[in-house]
Amino acid sequence: MAHRFVFDCPSCGAEMHVDADIRAEILAEGCVLCRTSVTSDAFTTASGVETR
Ligand SMILES: [Zn+2]
After folding, report:
1. Cα of 43 from ligand 1 centre, angstroms
2. How big, in percent rounded to 5, are the helix, strand and coil portions of the chain?
3. How many structural domains compose the chain?
4. Rounded to the nearest 5 degrees, what angle is found at the Cα of 35, between the Cα atoms of 32 and 40?
5. pLDDT tens digit string along 8-49?
6. Which residue in 21, 34, 46, 52 has the most C-beta neighbors within 10 A?
7. Is 40 inside a domain boundary?
8. How far is the CA of 50 from the centre of ligand 1 (A)?
């Protein structure tokens, strides 16, 4: 599967396209760059109309 989510870190401003696995990892571990813990609000779907 392609990268379906866009992660937009509210703390450091990092923006990256991620897949569901990485999304889950970021939710569990925090931002990959600044380690700030984030919620699902930091993600938007990259395409389509999927809701969480
Ligand atoms: Zn960050």
Report:
1. 12
2. 25, 20, 55
3. 1
4. 75
5. 999 999 999 999 999 999 999 999 999 999 999 999 997 755
6. 46
7. yes
8. 24
